[in-house]
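Re-running the complex after MR caught last week's input typo. The corrected sequence lines follow. Everything else is unchanged.
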Amino acid sequence: MRIRSNEAISPIFATLIILAVITVLFIPVFIWATGMSSETEDSWQLSGVIATERIVIEEVNLQADINNCTIYVRNIGKTTVSVDNVFISLSDGTGSLHVYKKSDTSLTTSPNSVIQGDLITVTIPDLDLLSPTLNQTYTLKVFTDRGVGDTYQVVT
Amino acid sequence: MYFGKIRHARTGISTIAAMFMLLLMFTAFTGILVAFLNYNLSAKEQMDIEHERAQEKIVLTRIELDNESNISNVVINNTGSIDVRIRALYEIANGETKLLFDPSSYDEANIGPTESLIIDIPSDIPEIQFDNQTIIVAATERGTKTLDSLPELVYGQVEPPSDYDPTKLYIGPLMLKFDDFFYHTTRGDGTLDDSDWKPGWIVDEKLPVKLAWKITVMNIDNRNLTITRFSSFNIVSTNSPNVRSWYINSTDHINREQFLQINQTESITYIWDGPFSDDPQTVSSTYKGSTCMVFLTFFGFFHETDETETPYAQTIPFEASITVVG
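Corrected-run output:
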């Protein structure tokens, strides 16, 4: 007996084949498109977090001929912050920039992170090559782990 | 025929593909839109924080010390237009900055606009010895610090405001007894007429009138004192630039000097219109209905223990004023 026609099957196969091809072709497009949108989304999300991140340096204890420094930083933003690094330099632009990072334990913070309104105490136990001298103006910059910072000038 | 059917079947496929595409685009755009709106909201929140911060202003108005010059409490005024919460007190002494404590962890630390807050130093905080070089700084939750102004220092227990003692309105050896202030009408030769001494605050006489004034002072220095004829009682009208002076009618009529012994209360009478004049001073009709401020100026010399004399001068603003009814 001869199968008269496979016409009834062909459209189904054809559909399946085309669907499979389209799906296969769409996978990279889908990944690319969703990836891009998610990157954009993440970028906006991060920008949003950074926009509400704000710290102020309230007081600084940096004294001449004393080899440590304490910085009192308040979180006045909406997000939880943790301080990551501190830059200290002479305000007149002379001398070198001294960088203290939490990652290399050249600074410690207490507590580790703070919510809005709370105070974080940053301690640099050893100023290393920075030797504060009397009646010098120093500029301190404190940065959070997301790169938000504040600047403070102190006269020793 | 066959290809026609395939072609016909593809119309269904394109619908599915289009749906895929639309779904994909919708998801992507929705995600981006939500993230963007979230960012906008965050930016607005941050702007609100900055706006609130700009309205904050606090002033440390008073530092109260106990008998051992330790700080017992501080008073902070909220001079801004928004509620503030004090979150830190710092002490800066000898170049060292120290965080003392967080007042909000001990007690209520919110201050409404135009209100003030007394922050007591908790007993578990080490005593804070105060000297003239010590600076106390308070900070709010939004990171606003007290302004750089010198607070009033108060020693000992703070008393509520009460009637002040006007006898303390002096800087110098003569202390004025504020309540003893009288006037007397005089004759043309400067002698007192038959009337009585009347309270000097209001002169109710027909103008012009020749007057004498009497005040009481005490020499609170540790040296005796003589005031000379140049010492005067001056009235300054608040209505016009009129100034009128009366010079002392001293107990020593020849030299017109008055000796004031240590710790003795003495009356001083002013009559003359000049230091060398024998004419009594007159309140003219231009003073009618006016109010006058009073200043006392004293010139003289101290009698030192080695019998030398040291020049002396003192001014006492009489604080209150007199009213000439006329």
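None of the earlier attempt is carried over here. Chain B has two domains: 58-155, 166-324. The mean pLDDT of chain B is 80.
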